Each structure stands twice: as C-alpha cells, then as structure tokens.
Amino acid sequence: MHNTTLQRIFSMRNIAVVALVGYFAVFMAYPIIKAFAGSMHNWNPLTDTYQWVGFENYAQVLTDSLFWKSIWNTAVYSFFSVAFRVIVGLALALLLTSKLVKAKSALRGLFYMPTITPLVAVSFVWMWMYDPQFGMIDKVTGLDIGWLNDSHWAMPAVIIMTIWKDFGYATVLYMAGIMSLPTDVYEAASLDGAGKWQTFWKITLPLLRPTTLLIVITSLITYLQAYIQILVMTGGGPGTDTYTISYLIYDQAFTKYNFGVASAMSVILFVLTGVLTLLMFKASGDKLEESR
Amino acid sequence: MKLAKTCAAIAATVLIATAATGCGTAGASGVVDTNADKGLAVLGDHVTYDPNHLVNDGQPIEIGYWSWGDASTDPVIGMLHEYEKIHPNVTVKISQVAWSDYWVKTPLSLKGNKNAPVLFNVHNSQDALLRPHMEAYDIDTADLEADYTNVDLHVVDGKIMYIDSVINTGNIYYNKTLWAEAGLTEDDIPATWDEFVEVAKKLTKFDGNKMIQSGFNMNGDGRYDGLWQGLNYQRGALMFSKDGTVANYDCEATKENLEFLRDLYETDKVSSVKFGDNSEQSFGNGQSAMIYAWGALQGTLETKYPDIDYGVFPTPTFSDDVPFAYDRYNGESTPGINVHQSEEQRAVAQDFIRFLLAGDDYVRSAVKLQNSFPGKKSLQDDSEILSNPVMAAIKPRLDRLIWPGPVPSTLESSPKIAFQNVIQNGQDIDTAVATAQAQIETDMKGSDFVSLESKYAHIDEAQ
Hints:
The complex is a heterodimer. Chain A is mainly α. Chain A has 14 helices and 2 strands; from the N terminus they run ααββαααααααααααα.
C-alpha cells in the first residue's frame, strides 16, 4: 500500500510535470517577474544598487527619442524581414514541390543550411562581404557603396542578410504544408476549369494560412528581439540608424549597466509582442471563420 | 523495483546537478615551504621586496587570478609564475574570462563568493564596479610616489587600490612604403595639423572618383572616440565642468574639431566614409597611409600584419606652440585584491603586489606586451625602452598628457555616434553635438564620477 502511494507520487508523469513547472518557474516566470520589479527600480546588480523609483524609468524611456527611433527601426526591420521570408520561402517551396525541379532533397538541405548556421558567424561573413574595400558584393557588382556605413543602406543590408539566413525555415515549413494539402480539392478545381494562377490564389494560399500564421508569428517574435546581427555588423550605426529595441536594451543593460531602464524597455517590448501576436491570431481567426 | 529506479534516478540527478554547480571546495595543492632563505637579493628602491621569507608560514595555499588577457598580453601572469617559483607553497589558479563577459562576471563573483579570485585584472574605466570589492595596497604611498608617476591620482580617501604600471596615448601610425611612394621623407613628418593635411593629400589616391588609398583613415572604433578628447585638450577645453561632474562635450572646441575632421572627408578628401569601417584593418592591408591609434596597435600589427613597414610620430597640434595638453593618456592598472577573501589569501596577495611593484621585470614586461610607456620612473630613460618608436613619441610629451580619471564609457560611445551622424549621415554639427551631450547627461544621471582634470599640473592654462 505504502509502496503504491510512493510509486504514484514518483510516477514519471509527476516527475515530468514537476520538472517542467520547475523549469518554467526558474527560467521563465522568475526572470519575467524580476524584470517587472526591476523596471520600477534604479537597478545595477553589479554594484548592488536597487532603489525604488516607481514609473520613473518608464517616463524616461517613453520620452527618449532614441527609444522611439529604435521602435521604428525594429518595425521596419521586422516588416521587411518577415515579408521577404514568407515570399521567398513560399516561392521556393512551390518550386521544390513542383515537377520542374530535380534533386529536391539536396536543394532543400542547401536552402536550410544558413538557418542552422550560427548567426554570429553569418553576420561576420556578411559584414566582410559588404566591406567596400575588399568585400565581394562591391567587387562583383562594380558598385561603390559603403553598405554598413551608409545611412540609406545599412538597414537594408542587415535585412538582406537576415532574409538570406532565414528563408530556409519558411521553405521547409511551406513544403510540409503544401505536401499535406488535400489533392481532391485540386482535382475539383481542375474539373471546374480553374487555371494555375487561380488555383494558387483561391486554394493553395488560403489552405496554407495556418502555416503562414505560424511563420509570421514566430518570425515576428524573433525579429523583435534581433540584436546580435546589429551588434556584429553595425554597432547600431551609422549614428543610431540601425538601433533596434533589443540592441538598445542590450546597450542599456550590458554597456551602461542601467538594468532598471533596460527592464522597463523589456516590459514594453514584452507587451508589444503580446499585443501584436494577439492581433495576428485575431485577424487570422476571423479570416478562417470567413472562409468556412 | 520502480521505486528503486525512481530513487536512483533522483539521486543521480542530484549528483549531476551538484557536480554541475561546481560546489566543490578549492583545495590547496602546493607543497610545504620550509626554506625562508631564498638566497635572493632585495628588490626595489623605495618600494622594496625581500623574497627571503615564508608566506602563509610556508603552508600550502591557493589563490585565484582572473584576467581578460593571456600570458602574451597580460604581464601579471608571467610574474605570478615567477612568484610561484620563489614561494612553492603558493599555487595560483589563473582563469581567463573574455573581455565582453569580464565586467559582468567579475563584480558578481567578487561579492563574497569563495571561488572568486583573490587577485584580478583591473581596467580603470570600470573603477566604479570594482572599487567596492577591493582592498587597499599595504604599501606606503610616499614610497609608491617615489617610484611611480601619477600615483596621487589614484589616492582615494587616503587609500590606493591600484596604480598605473604603464601609460599610453594616441599617436599617428604611417605606412613607410606608401610614404616613400609618395616621395615623402622623414623630414616631411608633420608637426601641425595643417602640415598633416598636406601630407595626407599626397598619400591619397583615386581611381576616377573612387578612393583607392586613404591618406588618413578615421573610420571605425577607437578613432574619433579617442581623438576628440585629445583635440579638445589641444585647444585647452576640458572634458568636464570645473567641478568635474558635468560633461563638457557641447562646446566650441568640439564643434571646431568636428568641422576640421569633416573637412578631411569632404573638402580635403583624404578620408572617405566608403573606405570601410575598420581603419586598423585598412592600415594593416596597406590601403590607408595614416591612422590615429594607441599603443595596442603595435601588437596587432606584429601579429596580424607583420609585413607592414610602419613608423610612428606624435599627434600633430594646431600650432607650433605647446598646447594645454597634447592628448589624454590612460594607464594599464596593476591588479586588484579581493577584499572579501580570507585573511591568509589577502596576505599572500599583498605580498605578491609588493613583489610586483618593487622589481623592474613587471613593468618591463608590460612595456613590451602592452606597447606602453613605463609608469616606473627608473625605467623612463631606459635606452632599450626608448628605442621603441611609440615610447620615443610619448617621452617628450609626458608632462603634457592629462588623465581625466576613470571616465564613464558614454564619453566615448556618445561622441562616436555624433561623429557618425556628422560624417556619415550629414547631420549638422550643432544638432549632433547637442544630442550627444544630452545622451551623456542622461547616462551619467546618478553617477558619482568626479573628473581628475583639476589635478593636472597645467590646469591653470585651461580655457
């Protein structure tokens, strides 16, 4: 009887649940709560400074022009990176699932390779490729552009690198989505005389909406937190033209050790990401309802 | 059976977790030393060290040392090994932590962690983070002042936590091959900025409209963020207000200097924003003829670009007159002692610091590894040291170099952004400078930093 009770308590299910709850409590809930609390304090853990300041950090952040500029830069970066990741990923997935292309597996592997390459390494390689003195891009194209030092080109240059690195993820997901689409719908469309273009717009794209939603939301969450490529490639420059919100948070926390302000920014980013995700789910849910 | 497996799994998990957290004790693995008479001479003139004694009563003891460098860049490491030879009962555990992590890990570790280092590498720019965890040197200040320069700048509340082993400042590095190709000789080395611009023009090459060789490259980190301070000092402008608490970036001197630098890009066309963002690399590749850099460049050139034939000359000035100061300098700091460690370990650390500062080997090694000028007075006229062109450039200016104190990093990062806004983004100088000033003031809000400019010997000549 005693053994049975203990066995029930120490069942694999209970151990797994406790481990998961413990993991989320330590690595998710605690840091989030700590960041919320920290955002109300003048906080520098390196000097044991932790003084209550109320909403002062939020006031400082919301009246800081660099914060708003970083928000704008993040929006631009995220919008174009997500849009091109979806477009390029879908186009290549359609190509790879068509009868036009041979060696599908090899190409799929090739396209996915940048996705699994460390971002720091990719950022360094692209930084050298963009170098106007010895970089491949200016040499091959014959252009004379200081890509990462030019206020007009720095952000597009980082976006191009991001798209190159990440489109493979969308390609693989779209390929899985396309291959699981019901064939009878296409047969019915064919019998009704639908052309290829009509089939794509009226059947393929709507049926791939859940995949698109997944890609858009996961991409958005990733890009709103982008800072490594900025840190390596531009350092936020020229001037502050490529400051993203996450880079600004990094700068405040780990360069200026102003963890209170950085936490306030993190809380705002957290809320912003949550709202955007909810809006996407809402919009997508409405469309799915309409299509039924 | 299932219960036994579960318990075993939990026990194994606990064991692994315990091992992973590294909560073992730091044991001392050295030998017992019974020989107090080492047969070695007493070191030093004023700060002295007699090696003929036992440390920690000859009992084995371990001390940790943390550094962001290795034996090829940090002279303390070699000296620790020397110390271990003299006192074999002392074992030093050396740990290297990457620079980017060092300033987070070290202060957090120092706070009462028994596995924290007893000795650690110090950079004066992080003084505020480290000072609360440091023990004062147990060496008479007068003795230190007699042996080393600028010791008084490191006395806080009568205590010294570290001093400068060596000091450095900016100079102009030039490519001798490109110099000769342009028909220039040693006689053409410029003394003023006007002369410098003329030389830079001769060293600049174009292919059509495209610059293929820059006469003077200012792009990237470590250029304007360092040079603006020197240029302002040359004009007699201080970095901070008279009471030393408010930054003085938004001033006429800054604007005049930015205008001068912008002209190098737009009017004189000896620099180009399209010439990459790493002037050091460009110089190393032989694409830029001159750059402004501190002594560390010498080490970079030796390891990464050994084929470059280069020379060094002192940074020009705006006129032939002696300026208020030629540039700012900065020191490489001697190690800090962790105040939170055991009395025995701190006693060994104090003994090591005395050993370090009494002899010449440490400073000689620092001069070599860090390409910097000796802080030890007895070595400042050493012919071997002065045969290095960087030391030769610094020596005559020593009296006219100023240290503003452990300045917050925003005094470098914010002006760098202002420079990029002017040069690369075409922003007007007034706006760029005012924005940077506002950023510096925001970043320094709550800081208790006070500039040490008032202690400069020629402070009465400031504007």
